[in-house]
Amino acid sequence: GTQPTVTDADLVLGYLDASFFLGGKMKLDVEAARRAIQTQIAEPLGLSVEEAAWGIHQVANENMANAARVHTLERGKDPHRFPLFAFGGAGPVHAYRVALALGSPLLIAPFGAGVMSTVGFLVAPLAFDFVRSWHSKLATLDWTKANTLLSGMEAEGEEVLIASGVDRAQIHHRRQADMRYVGQGHEVRVTLPGHSLSATDAEAIQAEFEQTYRQLYGRFGPPVPLELINWRVISSGPTPDLHLQTANLNAGNADFSCKGSRRAWFPEAKAYVDTPIYDRYRLAVGAHFHGPAIVEERESTVIVGQQGRCHIDQQRNLVVEIEER
């Protein structure tokens, strides 16, 4: 279509190479992107094309940062203490600004960030999740019914896994329950014992809930009874025996890996800045450089601002330390 997108904004800002998108397999039209932003965003708002493109980019950044901030704070954690892990095709393009917004000390972009979901699919065991809703207080729980629910889900899991070619001896089950303090509006997922349950397990289940609750929120809850809302079983097969290796052909230091430069927009300069472009595949372990910088691989691009100090760690992750502001 002709509506401007976040990718159009990133292209106009110089963050993406129109001739190297998907490693050059998909050509992008810079002028069409500029026209869409100019006619539909910039002119109606009285902005330049660059200001409008930066606004689009930054709105996307703030939306992601706000979601991450809520997710972290709801669990009693401080986002200033955690590195930001960037994956996906577009994630690394925006991750530096998201890290700045969160106050994260580090940005970590793994090698092959654009195909992390595919890697996850390949290394994850075949598994099926089952859930049954049954509301009951822990103190008055019908343990026979609980065991019936759990064993029924395990039998269902075994059936589908065996039909998928998994040997029965290699099937594992993990039992969980969604629990909460009576009167609360949200639940905490708790691991249950793997054996047949009885009233003697109530104390251990409560202790597991309280420990999980404290890990999430940094404190214990109110002195009220506990209730179970949902019962869960995760049935899984063996973890695939997959060993990932990354080629290190022609890898070298940052100077060797620099393949040119491109004008990219940085708000600190309020202008386009001639920015070095690094070939991700040539960056060896131990290579280091400073921002501003653009690091390209086939499926993703990492944008590093002027406050970033970069190095390649032992796992070939690109680690960006964000200097004090």
Please supply descriptive tags for the structure shown above:
325 residues, alpha+beta, five-stranded mixed β-sheet, four-stranded antiparallel β-sheet, 8 helices, 34% helix, elongated
Number of helices, where a helix is a run of at least 4 consecutive DSSP H or I residues: 8
Whole-number mean pLDDT: 91
Cα distance spanning the termini: 40 Å
Helix content: 25-40%
Count all strands and give the number: 13
Structural class: alpha+beta
Radius of gyration of CA atoms, rounded to a whole number: 25 Å
Q: For the largest sheet, list the strands in their spatial order.
A: 1-2-13-12-9
- Biggest sheet: strands, sense, closure? 5 strands, mixed
| Order of secondary-structure elements | HHHEHEHEHEEHEHEEEEEEE
Name the beta content range.
15-25%
Identify the overall geometry.
elongated
Poorly predicted regions? none
Structural features, described:
There is one protein chain. This protein is α+β, with helices and mostly antiparallel strands and 325 residues long. 34% of the residues lie in helices and 25% in strands. It is built from eight helices and 13 strands. It has helices at 6-12, 30-45, 49-73, 91-102, 116-123, 143-163, 202-217, 254-257; strands at residues 84-85, 106-109, 127-137, 172-181, 188-191, 226-236, 258-266, 271-279, 288-290, 293-296, 301-304, 308-312, 318-322. The strands form three sheets. Strands 1-2-13-12-9 form a five-stranded mixed beta sheet, covered by helices on one side. It has a four-stranded antiparallel beta sheet with strand order 3-6-4-5. Strands 7-8-10-11 form a four-stranded mixed beta sheet. The chain is elongated. The two termini are 40 Å apart. The model has no long low-confidence stretch (mean pLDDT 91).
